[in-house]
Design goal:
The protein contains ten helices and no strands. It has 253 residues and is mainly alpha-helical.
């Protein structure tokens, strides 16, 4: 409990320092209407919350992130396990992974609109696209890192190939899977803004785009701060999940 309290206090001190640096930079260094200090941005955020606008944009973006992230994870984890476990599968699918993961999600916006239209499907596809390859690579690396001594010990005790996979390989791979999902979640937040620029009616990306058109600088910074805080919260959640469910398999997590 004491360590957790110290960690929380450290986070609060870090954010306080961040906003202090922001205040000094905006007040004393930049002094520009295009770079407002924190207090006007906070006041604008309060207004948007009271009107229910900010919550609506946040929930819309989080819904798309969750859908695309879960879809990418559901596809990436089995493929990563197969690539890491079976050499023929690796030889067949590794070129696909290495080819597509170097094509950025932003470059796929036009393709996603052509394939899925301007509805929710195109945005979810972009999020899934930007997450799936990170998870595949991390999962495959985890399978390859399983200690052979553990596998031989299980085989000596009479375990079948399925039991070795289920009771030895999969638990040992879990830290890599969760770490890959943690990195993929960061990619989801990076991509959501670009995804929502395509004919979207709501979301933080749409909020940024509209604020740019009408030069509502405070709204731009409200959206940026919201994205940063949501991403920070998501990353802390994954760290907790890694420690809770995978820490005993990898003490360094």
């Amino acid at each position: 409990m004491r360590d957790r309290a110290i960690t929380v206090l450290g986070y609060l001190a870090g954010f306080a320092l961040l906003f202090a640096v922001w205040h000094v930079a905006a007040t004393w260094l930049a002094r520009s209407a295009l770079f407002p200090p924190p207090w006007p941005v906070l006041d604008r955020a309060v207004v948007l919350v009271e009107d229910g606008i900010l919550q609506e944009q946040v929930l819309a973006s989080l819904r798309r992130i969750a859908q695309g992230f879960l879809l990418g994870s559901a596809v990436g984890i089995p493929i990563g396990l197969a690539i890491g476990s079976f050499r023929p599968v690796r030889a067949l699918l590794e070129p696909w992974t290495e080819f597509f993961r170097f094509i950025p999600a932003v470059a796929m916006i036009t393709v996603s609109v052509i394939w899925f239209g301007i509805g929710e499907e195109s945005k979810v596809f972009l999020i899934a696209y930007t997450t799936v390859f990170v998870i595949i690579i991390s999962t495959a690396a985890g399978v390859g890192a399983v200690a052979r001594d553990k596998i031989r010990a299980a085989q000596c005790l009479g375990a079948t190939r399925f039991q070795v996979f289920l009771l030895v390989a999969l638990p040992a791979t879990l830290p890599y899977i969760l770490t890959g999902m943690r990195l993929a979640m960061a990619n989801s937040f990076v991509t959501i803004v670009a995804a929502e620029l395509v004919a979207s009616n709501d979301g933080l990306g749409k909020m940024l785009w509209d604020a740019r058109l009408f030069m509502q600088v405070e709204d731009i910074f409200v959206a940026l701060v919201a994205l940063g805080l949501l991403g920070f919260a998501a990353d802390r959640l994954f760290r907790l999940l890694i420690r809770a469910f995978a820490g005993r398999f990898n003490p360094t997590m």
